[in-house]
Amino acid sequence: MRLRALSDTLRRPGPRPHAGRDLAVAVFVSTVAAGGLLAELWVGRHYFAIWRLTRGVGDTVFYSGDGRPWFPLDEQRRDVSLDQVSPYVVKAVIAVEDRRFYRHPGIDPVGLVRAGWRDVRSGGVVEGGSTLTQQLARTLFLSNERTWARKAKEALLALMLEQVLTKDQILELYLNRVYLSGGVYGVEAMSRKLFVKRARELSLAESALVAGLIRAPSALSPWSNIEGALQRSERVLAKMRQEGFISAEDERSALHAHLRITSSPGLADTRSGYVKDYLRQLFRDQMGGDHPPDWQVRTTFLPAVQAAAEQSVAAGLRRLGIPGLEAALVALDPSTGDLLAVVGGHDFNAAPFNRAVRSRRQPGSAFKPFVYAAALERGMSPVSVLDNLQSIAAGAYQEWAPRNAEGYAPESQTLREALLESNNQAAVALQQRIGAGAVLKVADEVGLHGLPNVPSLALGTGLVTPLELTAAYAVFPNGGWAVKPRAIVRILDDGGSTAYENPVDRRRVLSEPVAFQALTMLRDVVDMGTAASARSLGLRIPAGGKTGTTDEFKDAWFVGFSTSVVAGVWVGFDQPAAIGRDAYGARVALPIWAEFMRRTARALPAGEFQPPPGMREVELCRVSYLRPVETCPVYVEYFKEGDDIPSRLCPIHRGSFRQEARRAVDDLLASLGRKLRHIFKW
């Protein structure tokens, strides 16, 4: 039996000796076939796209948040035929960018060898060696990333362009599409913006200046770095002479020519200029400085909301009537961080500096909600009491002590009352009680980075932008989530494929009960506190927010929210100076915010704020923040797990006989307790 079993085992077929090799070959062949098919599809699609260029080049279009086309990447575009461009421009561009343009098939072997050798020596892609045709291929079809894969695609596309188009067609497309700084694309548009003349009228010196911008349009912008632009033009003239395009006498004359340029690039469309410029810059930052055609940039902005923001800022500054005063407004969706409107100032054409995203100023009392949120996160409740407020000083800095705007300084206050009144001493006392580290932690988590660890932190002495502060406030209406502001959702290339995806970025930083408690306190600020004038200005929806005013009235803020939008307003001068007497945030910034909220009430409908599950609802006296008696004005306080809930009755209002008796007993016991503690020195 054992011999038969052994014999059967020996006769049983075993694994084929070459099965693994055959499988590897099959996988390799399949992979090559699939790769070849994908390559054919890619080449075919781009050949068709190149063929379409003979009918003209499309434009990248930005879409609004509702999915509709909004504006093109280049609103100043002016395409002209090659014979409408000065011969000096053509020769200057060829001399400095691709002197063998008319002799190579799309790629320049000499230039590639030189650039490749430098790339190898540096260990990366540092020199392009790109021909004009390659630059056009990148501009029309690719991103600006420096990788070997992109360079390979660029070279292949350049060869394809040369097969379909003539040299003059390629050069014409290039001169119409090249980026030349100041948001201007193409030599015709640049000629009109820079010299107020047509491209065909440019002199040799002017042509050299324009051609010199191609290499570094942002760094050499003649509106910000005329010296650098002129130095580069000298290099262009030298190259033109070396190539025999001009004589030495022509070069000397051009070097001594007096160039008259405009003082600023100006804008073709000033409407929504700040947000359009902001989006264009984000696109260029992500995809490079080139200008691909027929791409789609899907944004989060709503044009109707953007228009309301611009109108509100303009109307608010007109009402104030102070020359040179500026304002910024940011509005976003609190649940996603999606930007809905950005206004960076009064007039983009006059001052394109975007104060909404770039101006860093002190937020003043508008920072206080994050101090209170940190305290709530550490176990305090809205009716926790801060004592000894009149003796508050800032640690070792005894020469500094906070004072309230109206000079009133109560001895003790609940957190709710202190925030409602924007009590400076209470905010500093709270910071001292929980520690600056706790405040800085919350601030950093909601996007307010790099704030100073100083005694006056609670009073908003750090620096923030309106965009940062507005986004930070989203943590209150959205239930404790920090959101990253998002302006672009995705970018689609000319074939409809996703070239860039930007998902919602948010993370929990406060518990939901803490966020809701802070929200109810900020609602009190609007309903009966420092921002109560919002109601007299016509605000009817449930809303919360906080005013902010810095020392000497240099900055005025209001940041507020509903369930559907968070909006922040800053008002001040570009060079910090007093706005005026009593220029509080409630008087200067709040009216702009309230008008914006009214204008967008239909587009951004607001609902009621809902408490999270598990919170305990307790009726308290609105004045004493203790248990109410019969004649107390009352409100509902929300307590989270672990909060101390008041048990004492209100001592201010008259109660029923039973309530009065109970209060007398409570007062007697409290008095006796104090005496016993004094006797036994508890």
Any chance you could write out the topology, listing elements then pairs?
Layout: H1 2-11, H2 19-52, E1 61-63, E2 69-72, H3 87-97, H4 109-122, H5 132-141, H6 148-164, H7 167-177, H8 187-195, H9 204-212, H10 226-242, H11 248-255, H12 273-287, E3 296-299, H13 303-320, E4 326-332, E5 339-343, H14 355-358, H15 368-377, E6 385-386, E7 413-414, H16 415-421, H17 424-434, H18 436-445, H19 466-473, E8 481-483, E9 488-492, E10 498-501, E11 506-508, H20 512-528, H21 533-536, E12 544-549, E13 555-561, E14 566-572, H22 585-588, H23 590-599, E15 616-621, E16 634-639, H24 657-680
Parallel strand pairs: 1-3
Antiparallel strand pairs: 1-2, 3-9, 4-5, 4-14, 6-7, 8-11, 9-10, 12-13, 13-14, 15-16
